[in-house]
Amino acid sequence: MKHTIVMTGASRGIGRIAAEYILRQSPNVHLLVVARGSSGTRSAAELGAGGHAVSQVSADLGSLKSVRTAATEIRDRLDQGELPPLRGFVGNAGIQYTNALTEGPDGFESTFTVNVLANHLFVRLLQDRLAAPARIVITSSDTHFGDFKHNMGMVPGPAWKSPDVLARTCAFPKPATAVAGRTAYSTSKLAAIYLVHEYARRLPTGIDAVAYNPGFVPGTGLARNAGPVSRFAMRRILPVMTLTPFATSRNAAGRYLADVVLGTTQAPTGSYVDRSSVGRSSLESYDPRREGELWDAAERFTAA
Q: pLDDT by residue (tens digit) across 263-283?
């Protein structure tokens, strides 16, 4: 049966590979790509080559107003029958800055906006259009563990605070430094898992929510805001680590993501999928008090 999957972060990296794999494996999917400006138009055209059903909606994920406009357009297209029933949302887009000072147009710190609030707003505005069985997949990161085993010391672990603090700039010490920016990133990925747990509790039966961890994937666009040395290392040096158990290649990570989206990787709602199988996220990531507090704050932050 024809159905729609909405996906952010499909223009490059593991998201692009996942999108291509989804379209090859499931010819009944209409993939709706959410991306900014010409990037989304180009990606939709490339992904649609060969007769695949692909369209796009433009959005700047760093602007909640833009996200709201995009979600409203998707709702309208579903209601008007321009899109087949909605069966999935994939929040794969992510950003990491070299500081914790970058503020978006809504007054929120940009890492938190893109990695947490944009996904939440899409979920909340599309949830009543999701036709069961449906699946929400949010890309997380094993940086949320905060230990050497999971990130080899490259990214500081999360430093949880009140969501009202985390949502603003200067939430971490020395906010002008790359360490603060990376801490904002790992903390946002912990927040994503918290919200997945809340979605599992609150969404109707038949609408599952899953967090997906691709592992350490060198060579993606995540470091595009880093300095030239870091960007060079991510592109040219660190990819060799995919030959070891410490890293995941882009192709493998993209295929794993597609398998989670399509349900090939079976995972009950609220699960944490580590690459290709259901696992346990960090001990810190299971905290109903924080989860409820974050839900309440995200609702306030994204209210119209």
A: 999 999 999 999 999 999 999
CA atoms within 13 A on the CB side of 77: 19
| Cα–Cα nearest to 210, from 192, 225, 222 | 192
In the chain, where the domains are located:
3-301
CATH code that applies to domain 3-301? 3.40.50.720
CA-to-CA distance for 83 and 270, rounded, in angstroms? 27
The angle subtended at Cα 20 by Cα 211 and Cα 212, nearest 5°, is 10
Q: How many CB atoms lie within 10 A of CB 176?
A: 12
Single out the residue of 121, 272, 104, 95 nearest to residue 186, CA to CA: 95
Please report, rounded to a whole number, the percentage of residues in the chain having pLDDT higher than 90.
Answer: 84
pLDDT at 298 over 80: yes
Whose structure tokens read 């080559």?
49
Whole-number pLDDT of residue 149: 79
Instruction: Say whether 80 sits in a helix, a strand or coil.
Output: coil
Contact present, 22 and 29 (Cβ < 8 Å): yes
Closest CA to 200 of 136, 149, 270, 250: 270
**Residue pointed to by tokens 């998707």:** 74
d(CA 288, CA 107): 27
- Residues with Cβ within 8 Å of 157's Cβ and at least 6 positions away in sequence, in order, are 143, 144, 145, 146, 147, 151, 183, 186
CB 223 within 8 A of CB 230: yes
Tokens (6 digits) for 19: 């999108």
Cis-peptide into 133, omega within 30 deg:
yes
- Identify which of 83, 97, 197 has the alpha carbon closest to the alpha carbon of residue 140: 197
Residues 6+ apart with CB under 8 A from 254: 13, 14, 15, 16, 17, 18, 20, 21
- Sheet of strand 86-91: strand arrangement: 53-58, 29-35, 3-8, 86-91, 130-139, 207-213, 272-274, 277-279
Span 208-224, mean pLDDT?
A: 78
